[in-house]
Amino acid sequence: MNLPNKLTLLRIILVPFFVAVLLLDFIPHHYLIALIIFAAASITDMLDGKIARKYNMVTDFGKFADPLADKILVISAFACFIQLNIVNAVFIILVLFREFTVTSIRLVAIEHGKVVAANIWGKAKTVSQMAAIIIVLINGYIAELFSMGLLNGENVNIDGMLSVMNIVNQSLLWISAVLTVISGIIYIKDNFEFIKNAK
Q1: What single-letter DSSP state applies at residue 137?
Q2: pLDDT in the model for residue 98
C-alpha cells in the first residue's frame, strides 16, 4: 500500500478517536483535542491527493477511499453536533441526501464510462463544511474555558458572548447546508442524462 492510501486510511482511523473525544465532555479540553484530531485528519486529506498526483501514485483504491474518508469524517462531525445540540437533525438529513444522491450518480456514470469530477460548487461545499466544523470546535473550546473558569469573565458578558458564538455556529453550518443543496442540484442537472437513462 502506497503512502497516499496509508494517509487515507489514517484519516478513517482518526474518526472514532475524534468522535469519542468530542462526545466525552468529562475529558478536560475535549473540544481542543477534537479540533487537533480533526485538523490532523484534514491535513491528511490535503496531502494524500497532492502526493498521489505528484508521484503518480493514483490507485483505484485511492479514488474510492479518499472521498469516502472525507464523507465519513465530515458526517461524523455533524452527527456529533446533533448529539451536542448544536444543530438539528434536518441539517444532517440534507447533507446525507446530497451525498447519497451524488454518489449514486457517480456510480451510474462510471457504468457509462464517465467520471463525474468535483465542480466548483462541490469544492465550495467542502470548504464551507470544513470551515464550519473548525469554527464550531473553536467556539466550543472557548465556551469550555469559560465553564472551567480558565478564562476571566469579570468584564465580559458571558451569556451574550455565548449567544453570539451560537449565532456564528448556526450561520456557518446553514451556509454550508445551502451550498451542499445547491451543489447537489447542480450535479443532478449536469448529469441528468444518467438518471434518465438508468435501467
Answers
A1: H
A2: 93
How far apart CA 32 and CA 37 sit, in angstroms, is: 9
The answer to whether residue 63 scores a pLDDT higher than 80 is no
CA pair distance 181, 188, nearest whole angstrom:
11
Q: How confident is the model at residue 17 (pLDDT cuts 50, 70, 90)?
A: very high
Q: Give this prediction's pTM.
A: 0.90
Q: What CATH number is given to the structural domain containing 110?
A: 1.20.120
Which structural domain, as residue segments, surrounds residue 13?
A: 3-196
Provide the number of structural domains found in the chain: 1
Are the C-beta atoms of 132 and 173 separated by less than 8 Å? yes
- Predicted confidence band of residue 198 (pLDDT cuts 50, 70, 90): low
Please report, as a single letter, which amino acid is at residue 80.
C
CA distances from 175 to 99, 126, 142 (A): 17, 12, 22
| C-beta of residue 167 within 8 angstroms of C-beta of residue 196 | no
**Mean predicted confidence (pLDDT) in 85-94:** 94
User: CA 193 to CA 195: how far, in whole Å?
Assistant: 5
Answer yes or no: are the C-beta atoms of 184 and 102 closer than 8 Å: yes
Set of cell numbers at residue 156 = 465580559
Looking at residues 147-163, what average pLDDT do you find?
82
Helices (H), the chain: 3-23, 30-54, 60-83, 89-111, 120-147, 158-190, 192-196
Which residue is listed with cell 441539517?
Answer: 91
Structure confidence at residue 64 (pLDDT): 78
